[in-house]
Fold each of these.
Amino acid sequence: MTYTAPITEQRFVLETIADLPGLAQLQHFEAATADLVDAILEEAGKLSAGVFAPLNRIGDTEAAKLANGVVTLPAGVREAYAAYVEGGWMTLGADPAWGGQGLPFVLATAVQEQLTSANMALSLCPMLSQGAIEALTAHGSEDQKQTYLTKIISGEWTGTMNLTEPQAGTDVGALRTTATPAEDGTWRIKGSKIFITWGEHDVAENIIHLVLARTPGSPKGTKGISLFVVPKFLVNADGSLGARNDLRCVSIEHKLGIHSSPTCTMSYGDNDDCVGYIIGGENAGMRAMFTMMNHARINVGLQGVSIAERAYQHALAYAKERVQVRRIIEFADVRRMLMTMRGLTEAARALTYLNAAAVDRAHAETDERAGREAQALADLLTPVTKAFSTDVGVEVASLGVQIFGGMGFIEETGAAQHYRDARIAPIYEGTNGIQAMDLVGRKLPQGRWKSLFADMRADFALLTGETAGLAPYLEDALAALESATTWLAEGGAAGGADDNAAGATPYLRMFGLTIGGWLLAKQAATAAQRLAAGEGDPAFLNAKIVTARFFAEQFLPQAAALLGPITRGAEALFAIPEEAL
Amino acid sequence: MTYTAPITEQRFVLETIADLPGLAQLQHFEAATADLVDAILEEAGKLSAGVFAPLNRIGDTEAAKLANGVVTLPAGVREAYAAYVEGGWMTLGADPAWGGQGLPFVLATAVQEQLTSANMALSLCPMLSQGAIEALTAHGSEDQKQTYLTKIISGEWTGTMNLTEPQAGTDVGALRTTATPAEDGTWRIKGSKIFITWGEHDVAENIIHLVLARTPGSPKGTKGISLFVVPKFLVNADGSLGARNDLRCVSIEHKLGIHSSPTCTMSYGDNDDCVGYIIGGENAGMRAMFTMMNHARINVGLQGVSIAERAYQHALAYAKERVQVRRIIEFADVRRMLMTMRGLTEAARALTYLNAAAVDRAHAETDERAGREAQALADLLTPVTKAFSTDVGVEVASLGVQIFGGMGFIEETGAAQHYRDARIAPIYEGTNGIQAMDLVGRKLPQGRWKSLFADMRADFALLTGETAGLAPYLEDALAALESATTWLAEGGAAGGADDNAAGATPYLRMFGLTIGGWLLAKQAATAAQRLAAGEGDPAFLNAKIVTARFFAEQFLPQAAALLGPITRGAEALFAIPEEAL
């Protein structure tokens, strides 16, 4: 069950879809030279394959353990995280003003893809730190940045996000944790948080919790929420660690997957002495949280890509060696499963990288309008990246189990772990249903889909020669997507919001498949050009063309056929009274 | 996480789809009076809900354990099986000549559905016994029936199926276990078998293994395979238990799910003294195995129905109580998930019962032609029942996890167990890929689809009033199914067998969805008639009409859109050379 970082594929997508060379032309990212990008992908590939991947199964079987408030990770995890810190990997996309390298988020995304393929549970630790880095970078005070941000960017300390409470999951506004002002300008935090990923562990010397809480007299709901820095150990003026703060991990969850990612129930202020520092002022918590969540949603979408890639590599290796009459890779049905895995994985990767690159462009474009357009694209794509890619992760992992046959159901094989690990991604960071509602309810009204669809259509018109056959499939799918979008943008049928909500999930699927087909076709077109020019690896480039064709032929008709289901409205959904369900 | 047997639904499907009242008119099944059917469903519901269901989670967490060759089940399992035996449940569908009740297989199917919903791992024990019963009934000698069959039918002893060896899974013909004739007319068995469900346990006093092996000089491949009765304890002439036979369980698997179903590696003849008795003569093993497999495939399809039903009930209860702003069942997207679960589950149940009833009709019809037609229908539907329904099981269980949100990923909730348990059913008893190949390669050429499709079309023409709106969806799907069938029956395009194999899996899906839509429409039509006549429970009957509509609107367009993917041929599947995958 080895893992090899798919560097050729990643580089190709970074080039043709994310336009990383174009990003490197922007002053902000001028450090991202082709040589540096290559070196980073290679080195990260070594860390992933050599250090993270071998711990994946051990992490699954031994799991994180809690005893006396201390969470212990399986042997080797601490050393793996230390290797990550030593390589400076946390600094990749972070602000140079605070110790970061200021490289594009999309490059950090490619690195994170590898680490997550190698070991999803362990990769969550830096992923959560990245969320904390973004919130502190955008909303922290100079002092907070000096004290906390630099240490999280270096990787010496890790960060967490504390949103959920038992009664407040999707409904964040229902949270009850309180923050009371102390005389010295700090705050006292009191309350309980659940599902806190890497909330307690022994791999770094301090943990910086970002905690959502309510201040006295704050407005109800999400408007009255503030964000606090709550360190596990208080930090002295000289930066050294001081007293243990009044917070603790009271339990960890027994989960379906990602067993070596400790999912903690945290208790803050049991002794009324949990010190917190407000970030960005009172009642500004949701804004800061959204800063974190948008990146986090892309990163979770990426988990779908990563698990899919790992499951594909694993199943492919088995299909090549397993003999049933002949080697099973020679059977059309097994080949269909492999091509399905491959097509979905590559489509999800391209979408995710496009989305991450749009985030970069939004930050770095010097032309204001271009920056605004990029931000709008990033906003539009984020729910699709998150939901489509994580659904792909589950589907592909399930196909991986199937290729292994009876062996797939045996835990020692490892295919089952992918199937279990993958299942969390459609749930956390906003369920995929929430993403679909976000796409339909918030993102479509912003109108950015119009120029996106125009860009897609323009690309279809350029398909010639070997890739000309893709165009009819793409045009059909896009026509259906436009019809569905118009229907939704006009507020559905009679039922309005409920009708839109009723169609949101299949609409997101249609959106993801159509974008996926487009991005694979773009890659195929580039591949055909390079083949004609005698550039690049012919085997890789030919595979790009075939995969785009398989995807267009197999998945785009399904996408187009979702138009009816999307536009049927909510009536049938509510036609059976609750008690008769 | 309670379970309630869906008796109203089961009775309705038995009546409208399986035509159980019609079966009871046949002399063979005259015992199956309406009163008896009701009593059986009620009593089995009590056993399922009261005895089997409470052990489901304990069985998952404690699992079957092997020590010193003895497999121990978690506390309570032995008592649950004893209650099953005491109720005479194993006798339901068995031959009255050997202690059975001779009731229809479809009624036994409804009972088995309940037991499997309640506790899939435990339900496998009687399911395997049923396979042994069928093989012995059809192919055993009088003496074998007297000695073994009566005891398995009573439930005192259990049965197993021993096909798989490490190198021989899908490729049964590659098996190496040998049987050597002894002087007394018995045989000596030697070899190793893997994945033997309930191969060793402590819930019954004897285990009757049915073992495939090769006799000296037998032809290669599947033509040279014979079937043997190999009891754990030899049986004395007076029926009492004698010496322990030379066979043992050497290990049990650590699996993704069904943890309290011991999956054993069995070793036969370590001391060259494993006694076996041939069934049906030399080289007749595959025929006997097929007897077992056809019923077993329907029973495994049923597992998809059962897990889906359990996951639906579980998620529905949670959706009614869980509050996020408002109770989550009030959100359109949650309602969509519930309706999807409901529609798929009811479609798979109707298909499975139709299939089981066709088996009954094949046995019991006095008119020879009707019996032959019924057998051909059973043969045609079996791969669809097995593969479509088990895919449904996985999909519905996954949606169940999703409805639970973060709690769904926590093992204590139980939703994750359904997701894990469900995953084996698409694999064992012939992978779903094998089923698709069976459908396309063996069943379509038999031609029975022609009259089936004609019957479907005739039913569509009868849809009027409230159900008239279903007809266009059904007609579109059936038209596509006919086109695909014609294409496949004509041997695909240029590629012939490989082209057919390439389209087999989406074809089976299209077949399952279209049949499912038809059977739900039939039920809706009956429901509408009863509502008009003022008969029956209006809430239940209305729900039937709504579910049929939801299914037609949401799933049938997807079925129709598979025509293109099915008929694309194998070229793209093999266009990437293996080393470039």
Note: The two ends of chain A are 44 Å apart (CA to CA).
Amino acid sequence: MQARPPTMNDVAATASVGLKTVSRFVNGATNIDPVLAARIALAIEALDYRHNLAAASIRPGRSSKLIGLVISDLANPYYSSLARSIERVCSEHGYLLMSMSCDEDTERHQLLIDRLIAQRVDGLIVVPPRDDPNAWADGARWRIPLVVVDRPVTAPGIHTILADNAGGTEAATAELVRQGAARVAFIGDSLKLYTMRERLAGYRRIIEHDDLRLSARLTFTGAHTADQASDIVLSLLEKNLADAIFAANNRSTIGALRAFARAGHRLPLIGFDDFEAAPLLNPAVSVVAQDVAEMGRVAAETVLAAAQGLAPLVETHVLPTRLVLRGSEAKEISGTEWLE
Amino acid sequence: MQARPPTMNDVAATASVGLKTVSRFVNGATNIDPVLAARIALAIEALDYRHNLAAASIRPGRSSKLIGLVISDLANPYYSSLARSIERVCSEHGYLLMSMSCDEDTERHQLLIDRLIAQRVDGLIVVPPRDDPNAWADGARWRIPLVVVDRPVTAPGIHTILADNAGGTEAATAELVRQGAARVAFIGDSLKLYTMRERLAGYRRIIEHDDLRLSARLTFTGAHTADQASDIVLSLLEKNLADAIFAANNRSTIGALRAFARAGHRLPLIGFDDFEAAPLLNPAVSVVAQDVAEMGRVAAETVLAAAQGLAPLVETHVLPTRLVLRGSEAKEISGTEWLE
């Protein structure tokens, strides 16, 4: 039921008013016959007509100067840092950012998109929801300037900002192998997530198990929370099934660290995504760091350009990741000499 | 220039229309003479009249089902956890939350408040800005159901949710003294912040220095960032001026930990506000924990009740804090036995 979006012509026909008058109305002219103005307003509401903001905002004063952001979870430091970076760039350009989180709920995600469009934001930056990343985008992309971040969608014509998930994981896994690990476990979230599929692909560029049973015993993609990751790592430690841990997101890294603390011993570890306390732990935690500030900057500048009708070329940016080695990748740790 | 807010009578007079017609218009009746409707719409815009949402939303369908949240910094885990908790309760009640951060900028804060009201949110939850916490509230409190959290305002009649900052700090400082510290340093942010004034007051209930010079050498309220806190703690360590550190917010705690790592030795430490990695550090970091989930729940339920015209009694909730001792408060640490 992907209906054609209503046009200004439809509004004119419904209101029995000339196209020029409708155009003057939606562009903010105030000297319109109030009878006609009321008819146009009712037609716009009845049709759910959305004025093309990208074109309209070229006229000064017609823009809401608002950008909407829909992410998965405001309390996840990866997303809150991303939101902060986007907010900063919006602010530099005189725009405000409204942030909302959908908690990976497809229905709620659609509701947030609709609500932000109804609030007349000038553009949307969206992390697609895990279980159905594509459905919302077909509906949204003709209604509003749109940028997706972190995970792509299949709908064409959408600006997309991604990190090099596979490359970052490949480098981390290679380092763990270089440090002597034969059995590197992969602990991550659902493979419904693009980022997890990419990270697992990067891991498999290095770890190619001929033994399928071994591969199954070392690959875990059911860790949505830190506690779930912790349980998996505890079980690996108890059964001595792994030589090293690749934690495929910051939830899994925290979980692995909790498991080490509970079990009383550790394994070499690298996690995907940096976190503030990582350098303060003992050993300091090595990570694949995304350039979240840059991702936010590119996303914000792209959506602002589109909202201003500058129509940048639609493209997919893949930002490089960085392997930050701090000590936890090693088998032996250098001790606790900084502690008095 | 605190003008009387425009009333429905003012709209009726300006539009030369009866009060009943204005009332029917603002309550969504559609069978109004379009000429009158257009005149009313123009008068509402000219007067910047804001329909009393608390009363209006009793009628089903008239509510935007949106709540606005203005905090200091989305990327600070204290505020992002608070936002998450508020969002969850709003969601349970069928409301969506729009979160924005003002970065302690008074002008930006006012802009966010105005913008959220213009977006017709049903209610606002606000952390007042540091430098001028009161000015915005006089203007906002008659326009919209309002709850302030974390820091109070002087304007009367506003629901207020606070933590027991002084009591929590008093307990933490007493514990550091009990552990043998004579010179407990207080590291925090500006005393323009209500929370900092309260925490310093709690500290001073325990630490009463007769020697003013000593007091000045141990009280630091210029640490807005973790790096500024780190520099202060490094300098204390170098000059051996303190026996223990009370870090008055999570920025200062991270800063103290960075200083310990850089200096190669530590002091007994308790921080205000818990953070995810605190139990994973070595020694695990002791904190004064706020019940952020409960604070968010009370704030959300209060603003939703007010938005639905249930008019709860205006009151100030002070939520208790909890001293969580994990090891960092001690002079001697029990070692690193969990490390293999």
Note: The two ends of chain A are 68 Å apart (CA to CA).
